[in-house]
Amino acid sequence: MTAIEQLPLREELRGKSPYGAPQLDVPVRLNTNENPYPLPEPLVARIAERVTEAARHLNRYPDRDAVELRTELARYLTRTTGHRLQASAVWAANGSNEVLQQLLQAFGGPGRLALGFEPSYSMHALIARGTGTDWHAGPRREDFTVDLDAARSAIAERRPHVVFVCSPNNPTGTAVEPDTVLALYEAAQEARPSMVVVDEAYVEFSHGSSLLPLIEGRPNLVVSRTMSKAFGAAGLRLGYLAADPAVVDALQLVRLPYHLSAVTQATALAALEHTDTLLGYVEQLKKERDRVVAGLSDLGLRVTASDANFVQFGRFGDAHQVWRQLLDRGVLVRDNGVPGWLRVTTGTPEENDAFLSAVADVVDAAGASVTSEENP
Ligand code: PMP
Questions:
Q1: In which domain, by residue range, is 300 found?
Q2: Whether residues 157 and 281 fall in one domain
Q3: Are the C-beta atoms of 341 and 314 separated by less than 8 Å?
Q4: CATH number at residue 285
Q5: 300 inside domain
Q6: 17 in any annotated domain
Q7: Do 148 and 239 fall into the same domain?
Q8: 95: CA distance to ligand 1 center in Å?
Q9: Does residue 105 line the site of ligand 1, with CB under 6 A?
Q10: Cα–Cα–Cα angle for 130, 131, 137, nearest 5°?
Q11: 281 with 188, same domain?
């Protein structure tokens, strides 16, 4: 057996761990922010139809530019944000992770720097590393909002080529105000100018509205989205972005030819035909999210205000121990390594009941010792 250290691996990858949310077989899995509802049967049937048709042409490469899909995504974004978009301002790839990777391939890379405000989505830093881009972890306030003054100083000092703004932020659920994004954009333009990437993977679950209209007149602002959450299609692997068409042209320089399979394009188009039904599930999940927030507060726990389909809760003296105690009760949540806090994805009403009763049990068993006010 060859050990990884024996390979002529890039220096910066040595000793590093891969992304790894545990995929454990337990009754209640609330750790990866998936949508708990399977796709409705009429949509499953429509996917089969569309994929059957695509299968008849699989001897050929797919539409390299995915024009039909980008047109439908542009229609969805126009309808839900009120901001009129053409297909030329939309780009799609295999999950928004690939969209982010293409952005860093085009605008980051060796000798360049990306900056995000942590704790945030860990893949921003990991994709930076994978593309040879340096990473700087900018600060957040203790309540997990972006501290604008500190952010401005970090941008002015580090002069990043790419700035990540995650709204709603994973793992905290925190939304970012449009004025804050505008101020960050201005700071980033003054410093370099640099690209500002707003990651809106969870925006459909937000109380507020999308930041997408801010791309108007701001060619260095990008909004990335995904069908993994609101569309309940994490297994599909379809992410997309909206930006100035020049950004889309830039990404075509780094994308692999035919990166989006005909089967993926057909499936995503079928899902977009069922947008209204899927957004109906989102409304139910938002209510359930608010019920989970209330349930956790009733147990005397603290909850970070959430605009996403998950909730950050604490504060625990030893969050990992609580994670383990919940797992012992058949409930898998996420320990993102934020000291004192855990994150739970909103599930079905039954899963949320099971989660809340497991938490009650753990808090009961440990008494007050489980929570800690000292640990932020
Ligand atoms: N952005 C954020 C903030 C996420 O939490 C995730 C998935 N957990 C992604 C992007 C990537 O999602 P996908 O590649 O499935 O589109």
A1: 22-40+276-370
A2: no
A3: yes
A4: 3.90.1150.10
A5: yes
A6: no
A7: yes
A8: 7
A9: no
A10: 75
A11: no
Do 132 and 242 lie in a common domain?
yes
Q: Which residue out of 144, 169, 199 has the highest number of ligand 1 atoms within 8 Å of its CB and is therefore the one to mutate? A: 199
Contact 108, 133 (CB under 8 A): yes
Q: Is 239 in the pocket of ligand 1 (CB under 6 A)?
A: yes
| Cα four-point dihedral sign 79, 82, 88, 91 | negative
Q: Tell whether ligand 1 has an atom less than 6 A from the beta carbon of residue 96.
A: yes
Ligand 1 center–CA 101 separation, angstroms? 12
- Please tell me the distance between residue 355's alpha carbon and the centre of ligand 1 in angstroms: 23
Q: What is the pLDDT along the chain (376 residues), one digit of tens a residue?
A: 899 989 999 988 898 888 777 788 899 999 999 999 999 999 999 999 999 999 999 999 999 999 999 999 999 999 999 999 999 999 999 999 999 999 999 999 999 999 999 999 999 999 999 999 999 999 999 999 999 999 999 999 999 999 999 999 999 999 999 999 999 999 999 999 999 999 999 999 999 999 999 999 999 999 999 999 999 999 999 999 999 999 999 999 999 999 999 999 999 999 999 999 999 999 999 999 999 999 999 999 999 999 999 999 999 999 999 999 999 999 999 999 999 999 999 999 999 999 999 999 999 887 645 666 654 4
33 lines ligand 1 (CB under 6 A): yes
85 in a structural domain: yes
Residues 280 and 255 in one domain: no
Whether residue 113 sits in one domain with residue 191: yes
Residue from 97, 118, 223, 231 whose mutation best tests the ligand 1 pocket (most atoms within 8 A of CB): 97
* Cβ 230 vs Cβ 224: under 8 Å: no
Same domain, 59 and 196: yes
Question: β-strands 90-93, 239-242: how paired?
Answer: antiparallel
Atom of ligand 1 nearest to the CA of 234: 15
**247 & 345 share domain:** no
If you measure from the C-alpha of residue 308 to the centroid of ligand 1, how many angstroms do you get, rounded to a whole number? 12
| Domains contained in the chain, number | 2
Q: Helix, strand, or coil here: 157?
A: helix
Distance 97 CA to ligand 1 centre (A): 6
Full DSSP string of 321-349: HHHHHHHHTTEE-B--S-TTEEEEE---H
Q: Give the residue, out of 31, 98, 228, with the most ligand 1 atoms within 8 A of its beta carbon, to mutate for a pocket test.
A: 228
